[in-house]
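User: I'm writing a short report section on ligand binding and want a predicted complex to refer to. Could you take this sequence and zinc ion and write out the structure as tokens? A short remark afterwards would be nice.
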Amino acid sequence: MRIAEIIRAPKRNTELHPWNTGKVPRSSFPLKSVSRLQAGNEWAWRLVEFDALDRHFRVLIRLNVGKEYYQAILGMDDPRGMLVICHHELHTSHRDWHCHVSPCEVSNIFPGVLRDNASMRVWPRSENSECSTRFEIRQADAVTLAAERFGFTAQGGFI
Ligand SMILES: [Zn+2]
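Assistant: Sure. The structure tokens for the complex follow:
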């Protein structure tokens, strides 16, 4: 299974959790090391869960309006630890919209880490490190952006 298949697949049991701030507990996004998710209260985050292709997926949406930083992280539950497949991001300190994505077979991703540096690639590839996009993302838009990227809008009448 690869990311394109996951995006295209019909989603079931989509569940949208409420907004939180600060640290993301391991129970929400079960990584072995959560240090990079131990952010302060200026970070808002929200979890979406769904089933697809007989697997369970989580999308962690993180937003820091002051820092102009948005990311939606797609992970798949696995007995070895969560497999993090993609970070869809806009952070105006550099670049425009981009993904850090593992385009490989998902089962080959190193489990339990936020970024498997051996398999992750930045897409689109760009030499341009400037960000030309105005950061206008607010909590009201955050889920829709993730839903469009990962393909769970059609099944979720909740947005
Ligand atoms: Zn990035």
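A remark for your report: The chain has a mean pLDDT of 90. The radius of gyration is 15 Å.
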